[in-house]
Amino acid sequence: MTEKELILTTVKQCRRVDLYIDPLPLTPEQQFHLKEIHSRRQQGEPIQYILGSCEFLGIPLRVDSRVLVPRPETELLVETAVNLIREFKKTPARVLDLGTGSGNIAISLAKMVDSIDVTAVDISAEALALAKENAGDNGVLSKIKFVESDLFMNLKNHLLKNQLFDIIVSNPPYILTSQISELPSDVQHEPLLALDGGADGLKFYRRILAEAPAFLKAGGKIVWEIGDNQAESICELILRNRKLCHCEPEGRSNPNNMDCGSTLLTILSLSKDFVAPLGLLAMTNNQFFEITDCIKDLNGKERILILEKIDG
Q: Measured between alpha carbons, how far is 286 from 291 in angstroms, rounded to an integer?
């Protein structure tokens, strides 16, 4: 629906088709409600906050200023994760959602996959409270464990001994700090914690990459949503980090015929035709990650990056 249709169906408490089949005039109460909505919208407040809800993959969710408004691009992240989960033979699949916000990713996975055990983490207790409401509304509260934690910091206290995950999914904050003030006014109404990715937008990718090995099974996947034009920077981060090395584990071929210590300039060029270096290996804490896929969204932009953990 268009924004106008969303507003009118909310004000009139009707279906979209009723706006055209039976276009009754607004009552005085409805006119007052409509005026109030327009006033808040003119101040830049997101329409989803004003209406108190949105849809994500057809799933109704409550949203307000405690959480980021779910974006259509993130639906691709969920669809990618579901396809990966279906490749795992063991059930239930154990999935970690880092930075759950409204719970849109965790709830979608819980509804789309029958045998799944989701742990949803957020640093904000307020966001988690809303995510729990959404999980309850959608009948999947029993399939999701909600944990208040700054990424992995407090996670071990809430897991069984030696519990590891099959997949870690995350749509972390990736906006550069310097760009926050330039964002549209409605986006600036959203929580800063859910937007600010640090000076270069890569703050949380660094942390996840460094800390994930202790929580991920061998063969497990990290599925990231990434910002516009960030694929090259993130791939370079993975492979250039001073704790990382793109040597191959023993017994694995080097798909790009590169020696440890050689530069990445021939692969990570600054051209607009950048292609993620699939198959390149990065090592952290004696464990390896392989970049296995980089998926483009409907606008042709690199949007989803997949890494696989390979024990060295």
A: 16
84's enclosing H/E stretch is helix 73-85
pLDDT surpasses 90 at 84:
yes
What is the reported pLDDT for 47?
Answer: 95
Q: Which amino acid is located at 115 in the chain?
A: S
Q: State the Cα–Cα distance between residues 103 and 62, nearest whole angstrom.
A: 10
The domain 73-311 is placed in CATH, from the list 3.40.30.10, 3.40.50.150, 1.10.3720.10, 2.40.50.140, at 3.40.50.150
User: 15, 30 in Cβ contact below 8 A?
Assistant: no
pLDDT above 90 covers a percentage of the chain that reads: 69
- Omega before 92 cis (within 30°)? yes
pLDDT of residue 312: 55
CATH 1.10.8.10 correct for 3-62: yes
3-state secondary structure of 59: strand
Query: At 130, which helix (H) or strand (E)?
Result: helix 125-137
264 class by beta-carbon count within 10 Å (0-12 exposed, 13-18 middle, 19+ buried): middle
Q: Distance between CA atoms of 57 and 108, rounded to whole angstroms?
A: 7
Residues of the chain with CATH 3.40.50.150: 73-311
Average pLDDT, the chain: 85
Alpha-carbon span 241 to 255, nearest angstrom: 20
Please list the residue range(s) of the chain that carry CATH number 1.10.8.10. 3-62
In the block, residue with structure tokens 């021939």: 266
Cα distance between residue 72 and residue 187, in whole Å:
15
Global confidence as pTM: 0.84
> Which residue in the block uniquely carries the two structure tokens 């109704």?
60
Contact between 153 and 211 (Cβ < 8 Å): no
Burial 154-178 (b: 16+ CB within 10 A, else e): ebeeebeeeebbbbbbbbbbbbbbe
- C-alpha 62/C-alpha 169 separation (Å) is 21
